[in-house]
Amino acid sequence: MIDRREALRRAALLLGGALAAPTVAGVLAGCEARRVPDGAWKPRALTPDQANLVATIADHILPETDTPGARAVGVHRFIDAMLAESYPAEDRERFLAGLADVDARARRTCGRAFLQCATTDQRALLVHLDREAFATMPGPGEAHFFRTMKKLTLVGYYTSEIGATRELHHAPVPGRFDGCVPLAEIGRAWAV
After folding, report:
1. What is the mean pLDDT of residues 47-74?
2. How many structural domains does the chain have?
3. Angstrom distances, CA of residue 110 to CA of 14, 23, 45, 100, 107
4. Separate counts of helices (H) and strands (E) for the chain
5. Residue at 154 is within a domain
6. pLDDT attached to residue 168
7. Burial class (CB in 10 A: 0-12, 13-18, 19+), 72
8. Of all residues in the chain, what percent are helix, strand and coil, respectively (each to 5)?
9. Closest CA to 147 of 186, 94, 68
10. Residue 119 lies in a domain
11. Which domain range does residue 155 map to?
12. 180, part of any domain
């Protein structure tokens, strides 16, 4: 699998283009803080098995290093919320079909579902999907599943408190990180 630096370089290239409208809308509208313990959280767009698959893939994309990985910051919860609240039914179904395809490919290559494969087999499959996703530029409405997965993982990670404050070396000026402040409380925002 690629290392975090290479993943970020590719993501920067990927995100240098246009973000999908549902992603932008979800991030802008998804400011409701939900601090639900892992045992109490229930996915809304994904099944529990799909949520675990999303968390595992996201953790391969952004694994734990000296900072927490994607699963630890709840990227799978973010992706589930995006799919449930911001993605049109067609895009949500395309994403779910992509998850099913990951399992189908894992069954063809290692004889079991993705989550039951060895970590090395999981990484090999994801490297293949990564190469496939970036080999061609899809047309509008044809985003490759793994591109979408990487985009959502990176947006979810870097809009989390940990991603914004620990990974990006956040300088808390003029104050602490508060990711969910109603506009009425802060007034007009200034651009730099």
Report:
1. 95
2. 1
3. 30, 33, 28, 15, 6
4. 10, 0
5. yes
6. 73
7. middle
8. 60, 0, 40
9. 94
10. yes
11. 4-14+47-169
12. no
